[in-house]
């Protein structure tokens, strides 16, 4: 098979011929039709993110394709099935605290590195995946495969909204709404029946674009950097008390932005903190 191989950080991918993967028990081989490209892929390739990736490596965090081969214990999937490939790899020998890697993106610790060595990413004609990471999509059109890749982005904030039991009719604050995952969170909040979504971010133009796209249920609020003042603006803009916050800010964001969203919550409101904070040591 052909694959885009990263041999050194800061260097272009190399198109190489690699052995086809072979499915063992609990695994499947997928013919990749569309690969998901993260917005920060350039930073991964350059080494700017300093991700734990063992080179040479085939990158690519998830994708959509058709099942090409199955391990001997597969009972439901069939050859030719269209599937979404979830890149979150979990070891199976400790269900409570599994080792984790993001396939084709990053490994965490020695256990994650072992997973990374077994499962290459989706920037290739074929990829090996655990059976539990494959989600059947039904009979989709081949030309729609790239659009189905958006599911993997949507599932990230969806997990946060599920964790805080977000419900129809509630008012949601999305902190970091101008990013890729934040924009997806705004979309999901509306689809899940939000009364209103308060979209917070640093890019006023992007926030205005969300308002134009989704209408009056979305209200964009640029951060000022003053947590107390921003919290007051959020409460004033909300049609009712703020029930839930989904914070999905990047590590470079100011801590005051997260604080503002939390301060806007009503009593007994819920928050999912899915972003990160970067501090200088």
Instruction: State the low-pLDDT regions, or none.
Output: none
- Compute the number of strand runs: 16
Rg: 20 Å
H/E series, N to C? EEEHEEEEEEHEEHHEHEHEHEHE
Structural class: alpha/beta
- Give the averaged pLDDT, no decimals: 94
Sheet with most strands: 5 strands, antiparallel
Helix content: 25-40%
Tags for this model:
alpha/beta; 281 residues; Rossmann fold; elongated; Quinone Oxidoreductase, Chain A, domain 1; 2 domains; five-stranded parallel sheet; single chain; five-stranded antiparallel sheet
Fold and architecture overview:
The chain is of the alpha/beta class and 281 residues long. The protein folds into two domains: 2-148, Quinone Oxidoreductase, Chain A, domain 1 (Alpha-Beta Complex); 154-273, NAD(P)-binding Rossmann-like Domain (Rossmann fold, 3-Layer(aba) Sandwich), CATH 3.40.50.720. Helix content is 27%, strand content 28%. The chain is built from eight helices and 16 strands. The chain has helices at residues 41-46, 109-118, 145-148, 150-163, 180-191, 204-214, 227-237, 255-263; strands at 2-6, 14-17, 27-35, 57-58, 63-70, 82-85, 88-90, 100-102, 106-107, 126-130, 134-136, 171-175, 196-201, 218-222, 242-247, 265-273. The protein has a five-stranded antiparallel β-sheet. A five-stranded parallel β-sheet has the order 14-13-12-15-16, sandwiched between helices. The protein has a three-stranded antiparallel β-sheet with strand order 2-1-4, with no helix packed on it. Helix 8 (255-263) links the parallel strand 15 and strand 16 (265-273). Helix 7 crosses helix 8 (255-263). It is elongated. The model has no long low-confidence stretch (mean pLDDT 94).
């Amino acid at each position: 098979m052909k694959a885009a191989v990263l041999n050194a950080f800061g260097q272009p991918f190399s198109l190489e011929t690699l052995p086809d993967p072979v499915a063992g028990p609990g695994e499947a081989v997928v013919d990749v039709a569309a690969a998901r490209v993260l917005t920060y892929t350039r930073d991964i390739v350059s080494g700017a993110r300093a991700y734990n990736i063992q080179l040479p490596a085939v990158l690519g965090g998830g994708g959509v394709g058709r099942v090409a081969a199955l391990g001997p214990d597969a009972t439901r999937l069939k050859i030719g099935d269209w599937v979404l490939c979830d890149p979150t790899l979990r070891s199976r020998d400790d269900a409570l605290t599994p080792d984790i890697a993001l396939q084709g993106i990053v490994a965490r610790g020695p256990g994650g590195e072992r997973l990374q060595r077994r499962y290459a990413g989706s920037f290739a004609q074929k990829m090996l995946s655990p059976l539990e990471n494959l989600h059947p999509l039904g009979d989709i059109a081949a030309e729609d495969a790239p659009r189905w890749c958006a599911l993997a982005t949507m599932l990230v904030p969806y997990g946060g909204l599920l964790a805080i039991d977000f419900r129809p009719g509630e008012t949601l604050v999305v902190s970091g709404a101008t990013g890729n995952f934040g924009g997806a969170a705004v979309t999901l909040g509306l689809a899940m029946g939000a009364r209103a979504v308060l979209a917070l971010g640093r890019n006023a133009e992007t926030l205005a674009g969300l308002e134009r796209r989704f209408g009056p249920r979305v209200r964009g609020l640029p951060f000022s950097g003053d947590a107390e003042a921003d919290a007051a603006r959020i409460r004033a803009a909300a049609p009712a008390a703020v029930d839930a916050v989904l914070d999905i800010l990047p590590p470079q964001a100011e801590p005051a932005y997260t604080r503002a969203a939390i301060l806007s919550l009503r009593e007994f409101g819920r928050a999912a903190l899915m972003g990160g904070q970067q501090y200088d040591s």
